[in-house]
Each structure stands twice: as structure tokens, then as C-alpha cells.
Amino acid sequence: MASISAEQTNNEIVKKNRIQVSNTKKPLFFYVNLAKRYLQQHAEIELSALGMAITTVVTIAEILKNNGFVNEKSILTSTVGTKDAAKGRIVHKARIEIVLEKSEKFDSLMATAAHQANGNGKVEKVEKVEKMEKKQ
């Protein structure tokens, strides 16, 4: 019987609350809203991106911080070697990981936002959001 180390368990937890951002696949506020949904389920989230998507991750983190939803916990930068099929060689890309933790005001801010939106139909139904998360 194989035993699971604490490090493996921690890595699995991180994957459940990690959002890998692309600057071409989804609009900016898709990721902002997704981060808020993840924060409703987890105490912290990790935003990560490669190359040109790094600016998108930084923007998402700043929006969440400036609106009081999160506190910045850590930022890690590195380079990753990826194989470029067209060039047939390894290309190094910049990588960023930003860990954000739920602020003390998070729950009250989310409740206020939901209350304000209830009258004008701008808040999506929970089922629709859950379907979007399952697709990923």
C-alpha cells in the first residue's frame, strides 16, 4: 500500500484552488469572478500564468486587492522551459504565481454585491456558474 506524503496532499489542495490564466481564452472579468467563486470555497487561491498572460494575472490580483476582497500572501516568479514544436527547441518562458488569501471583509463584500444585484438581474444564477466551472 502506498502512503501519501504531506507534500503530495498539499499539492493536490493547491490544484483545486489554482486558476491558470491565459490572455487569449477568456475575458479579464471572467477570471475576477471565477477567483471570487473559488474564494467562497477556499481560504486562499493561486493565480498562475506564463509569458504574456502575466500582465493579466497581475491585473486580476490588483482588482481583487483594490476592492478589498483579498490580501496578497506571496508572489513567486520563475522561468519554465517549454518545447516549441515549430522551432524544435526548448523556449524559456517567464512564469508567475500569486497566492491571495481571503480578506476579513470578503464575506460582507460578497453579500453586499449579491444584495445590490438581486433587483437588477445582473448576478448569474449559481447553477450557471457551477456549469461554467465544471467545463474547465
UniProtKB/TrEMBL annotation:
SUPFAM superfamilies: AlbA-like. Residues 17-68 form the DNA/RNA-binding protein Alba-like domain. Residues 122-136 have a biased composition (Basic and acidic residues). InterPro entries: Alba-like_dom_sf, DNA/RNA-bd_Alba-like, UCP030333_Alba. Residues 117-136 are annotated as: Disordered. PANTHER family: ALBA DNA_RNA-BINDING PROTEIN, DNA/RNA-BINDING PROTEIN ALBA 3. This is DNA/RNA-binding protein Alba-like domain-containing protein.
